[in-house]
Specification:
Number of strands: 8
Number of helices: 6
Number of domains: 1
GO molecular function, one term: carboxymethylenebutenolidase activity
Protein name: Carboxymethylenebutenolidase
Keywords: Hydrolase
Enzyme class: hydrolase
Organism: Glutamicibacter protophormiae (Brevibacterium protophormiae)
CATH topology: Rossmann fold
Strand order of the largest sheet: 1-2-4-3-5-6-7-8
Helix content: 25-40%
Distance between the termini: 20 Å
Structural class: alpha/beta
Largest sheet: 8 strands, mixed
Radius of gyration: 16 Å
């Protein structure tokens, strides 16, 4: 695949259907591949910015559109859109994104990284469990329970989690139990960080106003360093 622009909307095959996403490239045009998984708001400017920021750090970043172009800034509508996405459909779209990136001439890594936020924090673990050896590193940021697999035995990726101590959507006790379960069932390297913030503390566009620049910055640098170590 030849890509001539630093970022663009792309289409790719996924289980017999055409899926779409946002692809961001580093200045060199080539680099290790990372899947960026959206929040329940859709493929927003914030998620595109995350992909752009990863590209600026040397990655080829693909953010698949799990909602078929729908975007909202209303929490009730976001919850409805998330509930209308069957987990198996989301997993299929992400699997197609993995195959698309791995087949790309722009991607220099044999395995991919994956990072997800909110709803994507669950689906990034689903992807790691589903894709096994194709995913070298998985980075979930908080979560809402959607997309989280019941069984982590298929995970071979190293996992680095970022969760909030005061998260009303995914209580920290659940995150700590998730950490223990992944470590127990996968045998992979698992490191979770817990922050004195609220849900979506990394999202500077979050309507609830939970963004915390200090926590976001610390978590981001940890995540990027981790992806560079495991994927680059």
């Amino acid at each position: 695949m030849a890509v001539r622009t630093p970022h663009q909307n792309v289409a790719f095959e996924s289980f017999g259907t055409q899926a779409h996403g946002y692809l961001a490239l580093p200045e060199s045009g080539k680099g290790p591949g990372v899947i960026v998984i959206q929040e329940w708001w859709g493929l927003t400017d914030h998620i595109r910015d995350v992909a752009d920021r990863l590209a600026a750090r040397g990655f080829v970043a693909l953010a698949p559109d799990l909602f078929g172009g729908s975007i909202t800034h209303d929490g009730e509508e976001a919850g409805r859109m998330m509930s209308e996405l069957p987990e198996e459909k989301g997993a299929e779209l992400l699997a197609g994104a993995v195959d698309f990136l791995l087949a790309s001439d722009n991607v220099t890594s044999e395995k991919l990284g994956a990072i997800g936020f909110c709803m994507g924090g669950g689906f990034v673990l689903q992807l790691a469990a589903q894709q096994g050896e194709k995913i070298a590193a998985a980075v979930p940021f908080y979560g809402v329970g959607q997309g989280v697999p019941n069984d982590f035995s298929g995970v071979s990726a190293a996992v680095q989690g970022h969760y909030a101590n005061f998260d009303d959507f995914y209580p920290v006790d659940q995150a700590r139990e998730q950490e223990r379960q992944i470590r127990r069932e996968s045998g992979s390297e698992v490191t979770y960080f817990y922050y004195d913030g609220k849900h979506a503390f990394h999202n500077d566009e979050n309507p609830a106003g939970n963004y915390d620049p200090a926590l976001a910055g610390a978590a981001w640098e940890r995540a990027v360093d981790f992806l560079q170590e495991k994927v680059a």
